[in-house]
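Bumping my old thread because nobody answered last time. Still need a sequence for this structure:
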């Protein structure tokens, strides 16, 4: 695998090649996942839950993100590295630029922001100053208390239209990648067709340009509530690398996610 860039991700969308992304938070897993063929690694603020044991992502700081971004970057050579901007770290374009700089200096190639058209100016400023941006729409976990829980978004027609509107606005502002989380598959398919940038789904069906999973879910390490859209790839593999090779292959072939992992 040659080095993955924004240009390569864009070319993959054009060619209809599916993008496989997974979270990682340290060098050991970053190296293994890259060897297994993942194109992009996300240092998700999900680390608040899976590493820190909190019940939301709201406590994660820019310093936490910078630390884990550096760990991942040190273990990775070819994968495209996306780091989450944590809760309240991008409330203004100026604040976003200062905090994104810390993540880029730690090794991120791109930063991810949760939210819609109100982030347009922030997206444009970051991009102008050299930081590519990934959007995140649908179930945006930093807004868990606004939603009243981690639930499917965009089920009603008016909600679905809103999500489409925000996707268009973010693309116009300059995002180069979009994550759609927990939305009905037909909506994710529409948005993936509508946008010219790659759309990465999680709980968004198979008709996006790629998939992302939290590594603990993909390896069946999550105890307690396991979301419907995840799959334990380790169960039928001998080791972690083989498990993630299977994930990459199933994403490429359009076999994961199946209907049982999706919402219609
Ligand atoms: O924090 C995270 O792991 C994420 C993915 C679930 C998309 O944002
Ligand atoms: Na996140």
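Sorry it took so long. Here it is:
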């Amino acid at each position: 695998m040659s080095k993955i860039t924004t240009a390569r991700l864009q070319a993959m969308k054009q060619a209809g090649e599916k993008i496989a992304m997974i979270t990682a938070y340290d060098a050991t897993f970053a190296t293994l996942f890259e060897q297994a063929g993942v194109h992009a690694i996300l240092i998700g603020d999900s680390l608040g839950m899976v590493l820190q044991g909190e019940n939301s992502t709201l406590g994660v700081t820019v310093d936490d993100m910078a630390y884990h971004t550096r760990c991942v970057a040190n273990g990775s050579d070819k994968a495209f590295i996306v780091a989450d901007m944590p809760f309240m770290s991008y409330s203004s374009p100026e604040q976003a630029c200062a905090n994104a700089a810390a993540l880029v200096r730690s090794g991120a190639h791109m930063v991810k922001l949760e939210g819609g058209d109100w982030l347009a100016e922030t997206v444009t400023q970051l991009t102008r100053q050299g930081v590519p941006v990934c959007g995140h729409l649908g179930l945006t976990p930093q807004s868990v208390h606004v939603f009243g829980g981690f639930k499917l978004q965009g089920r009603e027609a008016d909600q679905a239209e809103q999500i489409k509107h925000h996707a268009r606005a973010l693309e116009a502002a300059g995002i180069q990648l979009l994550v759609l989380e927990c939305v009905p598959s037909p909506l994710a398919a529409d948005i993936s067709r509508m946008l010219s940038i790659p759309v990465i789904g999680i709980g968004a069906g198979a008709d996006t340009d790629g998939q992302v999973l939290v590594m603990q879910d993909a390896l069946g390490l999550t105890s307690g509530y396991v979301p419907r859209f995840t799959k334990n790839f380790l169960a039928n593999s001998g080791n972690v690398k083989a498990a993630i090779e299977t994930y990459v292959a199933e994403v490429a072939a359009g076999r994961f996610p199946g209907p049982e992992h999706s919402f219609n």
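Residues 58 and 156 are 27 Å apart (CA to CA). Let me know if any region looks off to you.
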